[in-house]
Amino acid sequence: MRYRQFGRTGWEVSEIGYGMWGMGGWSNSDDHESLGSLQAAVTRGCNFFDTAQVYGEGRSENLLGQTVRANRDKRLYTATKVPPRNKQWPAPSECGLQESYPPDHIEELVHRSLENARLESFDLMQFHTWNDEWLRDDRWLYKLDDLRSHRLISAIGISLNRWEPWNGVRAVRTGQIDSVQVIYNIFDQNPEDDLFPACEEMNVAVIARVPFDEGTLTGTLTNDSKWPESDWRNTYFVPENLIPSVERANALKVFLRGWNREHSTEISMPEMALRFILTNPAVSTIIPGMRKLSHVEANIAAGDAGPLPAELYAELKKHRWVRKPTPWSQ
Length: 330
Ligand SMILES: NC(=O)c1ccc[n+]([C@@H]2O[C@H](COP(=O)([O-])OP(=O)(O)OC[C@H]3O[C@@H](n4cnc5c(N)ncnc54)[C@H](OP(=O)(O)O)[C@@H]3O)[C@@H](O)[C@H]2O)c1
Hints:
alpha/beta, TIM Barrel, eight-stranded parallel β-sheet, two-stranded antiparallel ribbon, 13 helices, 40% helix, binds NADP nicotinamide-adenine-dinucleotide phosphate
């Protein structure tokens, strides 16, 4: 495992971190399997774990707490997220801070997350939605500083709404946040435009989330993909999204087959997706969602292979897909 600096915090985090949404609430999650996968990742050097209170209403935070307690001899970095009080994803532009993150709500929910995980503190507390307009009201910052002074949290981050990487640049430029979490993958390259330069300038850590575009970039989805009724992916992969996503993933598959043939390599779609992200030095850690042990092993091996060859990277840059938030994109 290789490690990178996490912005100005002084933490050295694994390039392959761990996304813990799926194990909290996606269909067919099994806690025994998830704990085994988490432990395998720790054993292989993974030290950064991203969860949130809404991932199974504490179920994922609880699994993280168990993993930390089972590895007291290791420095594991724990990141969670406070949900907005109005439970609106993404943050509606007309909603002010009072509806989303009033100070008493922040305090109450940080305590609830600590109880869920049975931990005394979290390394990173993030807002689960963000709107740069909230910078006009700095009560959120005073509250987080207060929680930090009581050692309940160490660092402060924001998680940006899907396909709005621009809506966080001003927060980064205030110099008051330690990290930003953003969707960055072969399709969603636009954080490179304004967000990453701001993060590099301000030494703010970047957590690259949704590296596989929720599954598309693993190359396993088809136009007929369906999930059990309760699974949120049914609401995200509506035909308007699924069909063009599969089409673009299939184009990548054809390209990769040709590349592998020509260069006598055996790079897989998930490996290519992770190594694409790793090639950008602005990224501090990637947090692939993974419940299966085989996925942990494959993704950590992909990290070990390091950045992509320049020629392959340049070809993938052409697969940028600019998308705008929609009612189904959440
Ligand atoms: N608003 C926010 O702050 C927000 C929103 C979304 C996500 N996140 C964070 O970002 C993390 C990552 O995003 P995500 O989990 O939604 O999506 P993702 O990482 O793009 O995709 C996860 C999917 O890929 C599968 N997978 C993982 N490794 C694979 C491999 N090597 N081969 C084939 N399939 C593989 C996983 O399967 P298994 O699970 O079955 O192993 C899962 O179905 C989340 O877990 C969460 O921590 C934050």
